[in-house]
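quick one, two chains, predict together pls
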Amino acid sequence: MKIGILIFDEMTQLDATGPFEAFARIPGATVLLVAKHRRPVVAQFGLTVIPNTDLRYCPKLDILCVAGGSGVNDLLLDDEVLEFVRRQAKTAKYTTSVCTGSLVLGAAGLLRGKRAACHWASLPMLAAFGAKPSAKRIEHDGKLITAGGVTSGIDFGLWIAAKLAGRTAARRIQLMIQYDPKPPFRAGTPRQAGARLTRAHVRKNEEFQAARAALVARAAARLP
Amino acid sequence: MKIGILIFDEMTQLDATGPFEAFARIPGATVLLVAKHRRPVVAQFGLTVIPNTDLRYCPKLDILCVAGGSGVNDLLLDDEVLEFVRRQAKTAKYTTSVCTGSLVLGAAGLLRGKRAACHWASLPMLAAFGAKPSAKRIEHDGKLITAGGVTSGIDFGLWIAAKLAGRTAARRIQLMIQYDPKPPFRAGTPRQAGARLTRAHVRKNEEFQAARAALVARAAARLP
């Protein structure tokens, strides 16, 4: 059972490291961090991870998981990455993503007509790829499983663990990682955070999101 | 504002990467991954991270956070590491840990008479260091803040963000990382998981935990 997580510079590291912690504890699973190049990957805020393999040498995966983050923008028109995603998706049991990783699945042409999740701030952009944007924390549509923003990847990792190894194995992993979350505040979604805080965040990221939307439009225009 | 996370081989990577994601988003904060040596740190299950600095060159930290994991066993009698922890704790605003990182704080002599949290499976061992074991997800006793097992580090990271930058900043970080957890199962504590699953886990780790208990006893015997 081979699970590959696609990582890249300026990814949100928790998009990858959250599910990694659940995946790695699945009995019989091997988790590979896959990057375009073999050099260390520098995530947002500088956390630096050494990948296990690259696009070319990555074996056939049972599960492909694409992380998200601001670095997604650099992948949306990257044919080498998109071709890798398409190729793996053909034979994978599940093709998956966390956070804005679903934009990469969209750019690879895998979301047409599918329900898919994403980080709330970029969720509407999925429509450009023909997807049906879903505000769920875990969205499941056939072979496609997509998680919402960042920390959704932990819920998603346990969900995948159950799919692959059964409910008891997944519950055992949950016990090992003591996942009985107790957020100190209630602000994990725009609704919980309220209009004012959400607006402040959206305004601060306006320029970045506009650049992303332009890339998404170009990527969508290239789809057959 | 300098926040240092002590990382080491065979740590549980999510103990470090969970709080990192919250810490790094605190306005004005710099997060350093500190290791005994500058070479890459290989966490449990092989995830490999490049540290930013080492014990010797690490600047004075405002917050020290010690990660946990099976590699904690190698630190309990390591004078270089324990001396680093003691030195930083003298001037830090908060000395903190996630998961079994609190055993390292105990071995450094910082827990005597203090309430402290830990991963549930190793929690009773804190008593050897004179601590009052606490089953809370975040325990706060003076300058000491300790989190429970693995994923507690995310709740803890947001809690620290609020302490350092205020409640609004922390809530904004929670919104950014979309932290509205929805665990697919209810098995995050021994009580939730039930006696059978908990016993299965404990039995499988009996040998490791016995070795750890012996190291804890030796570390405790060395305290002045």
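The longest helix of chain A spans residues 206-221.
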